[in-house]
Structure formats: C-alpha cells, structure tokens
Amino acid sequence: MVEKEEVYKSRVKYKGVFSFNDFYNFCYSWFADEEGYLLIEEKYVEKMSGDSKLVEIEWVANKKITDYFKFQIKIKFRITDMVKAEIVDSKGNKVATNKGAIDMAVKGLLLRDYEGKFESTATRKFIRGVYEKWVITARVDEMQTKLIKACEEYITQAKGFLDLEGKK
Question: Is the pLDDT score of 168 beyond 50?
C-alpha cells in the first residue's frame, strides 16, 4: 500500500480584481508545463446566483521523483461572488475582467513506495521499515523539503499573479 505523508498545508485568500481565465491558465500551466506534473482536474463546478458566480475546482498534481518517491499536490479553489468587471489599464484602455474572492487550499503529500513493491509479503514490509528508518532517513527528509519548496513556490507564483492582475 502506498505510504502517504502530508508534509505541507496552506491556504491563500484573495479578494479583488482578477481575470479568471488567465488565473486558471496560469496555475494549470505552472504545474503541467513548467514543473512537469501530471495534472488531473477532479472537480469543476459553476453555479450562478443572480449576477454572481460560484466556481469550485479541485486538482491533483502528481510528479514521479524516483522509483520510490512521488510528489502529490492537491489544490482546491473556491471562487465566490465572481462578477464581470471592467477596469482601465495603465494605457487608458478599458479591459473586461472579473472581480470576486478566491480561497485556494494547497496540500502537499509525499508518496513512498507508490508502486507497492514492498507490499507483497510481510518480510518485504519489514525490510521497508528498516530501509526507511535506517538507510534513507536523510533522503526522506530531503524529499519532504523539496516538496515543501515546490508547494511554496506555487503559492508564491499564484500570489504574484493575483497581485499583478489586481494592479492593471
């Protein structure tokens, strides 16, 4: 059985002006194109309520690091009170965009023995315990640190994007 360990959990909240399509594409391409994750959209729901829209999105991003370790990052977006808006950019042009509140939750999971190679017998499970506790302790710590950095980098990029979008 895959050993999953949650090593990172954070939440970002933003309220203001942003382009939903640009933000969605930016976040998706950061995982899929820039970082090489296999990104799966598990949920996408839009609900209208008068003029405003509620959008809920759930992604799972997986990246094989070694034959033993795999990173899994789960992202949940909840966008509330999203309405169409129009702003004037720095050149004086009117730009159609969106306005609303974004609540984004990010969870980083370190998957060990994700192919279940050590799960076939009780002896192999015992060897796995010894292997992790005595042989690769430093390697596990290194993988946890790398996963935390990846999650923090994504959050930094997303915040940066929203900050720049809000200042157009």
Answer: no
2 pLDDT above the threshold of 70: yes
Neighbours of 158 (CB within 10 A): 21
Alpha-carbon distance 5 to 111, whole Å?
A: 7
Say how far apart CA 58 and CA 24 lie, in whole Å. 12
**CB-based contact 22:165 (threshold 8 Å):** yes
The answer to whether the beta carbons of residues 100 and 15 sit under 8 Å apart is yes
State the Cα–Cα distance between residues 43 and 57, nearest whole angstrom. 5
85 in Cβ contact with 97 (< 8 Å): yes
Could you tell me the strand order of the sheet in which 52-64 lies?
A: 3-18, 94-112, 69-88, 52-64, 38-49
CB-based contacts of 120: which residues, under 8 Å, 6+ apart? none
Q: What three-state secondary structure class fits 151?
A: helix
Give domain limits for the chain.
Answer: 3-166
Element (H, E) at 120: none
CA atoms of 88 and 77, how far apart (whole Å): 27
Low-confidence winner among 18-22, 25-29, 74-78, 88-92 (lowest mean pLDDT): 88-92
